[in-house]
Amino acid sequence: MVFFVRTAAEGDVEQIRALLAATFHASYDPFYGPEKVTQLIGSWHSPAAIRARIVRKDGEFLLADDGRELGGLGYAAMYPKMEKTVMLHQLYVRPSCQGDGIGRDIFAELETCFPYAEVMRTEVALQNLRAISFYERLGFSEVDRMEEWGGPNSGLPAVVLEKSLRSL
């Protein structure tokens, strides 16, 4: 299959939700269990939350689309707490498409969407060694750790990774 990276539109919300549900369960069930993951999906990926990301003025929501299904998605936005920093909030690839370069292609496009940013930052669940390794291959390195990934009282520890964008 050939996937093309394109900007998400409001008409993509249900496909995005389905992709996020599949990737979240595949990625996080082993660490947090299916019940906790279903709860996270419900609270973090409501249609309203997805629509808000799609229309955000200082953000970019990209999809890998082959015309039949979405193979992956990426969402990043300027980080208001840190000047010239982009926060990579989401980069997920459908489990059946992982290893095909879709995540790398989405990330490569996201890197170019913020010409005034100097740093890209992301947070990864501490147990998700596969994702941490992926980001390290993209040039990210650990800068911090946190106890509450995704929001207050989550109880989900994470590693904070950063990559310099100055060389682009």
UniProtKB/TrEMBL annotation:
Key word Ribosomal protein present: no
Single GO MF descriptor: acyltransferase activity, transferring groups other than amino-acyl groups
Keyword line: Acyltransferase, Transferase
Gene3D superfamilies: 3.40.630.30
PROSITE patterns: GNAT
The N-acetyltransferase domain, residue ranges: 3-166
Protein name: GCN5-related N-acetyltransferase
Protein's organism: Pseudorhizobium banfieldiae
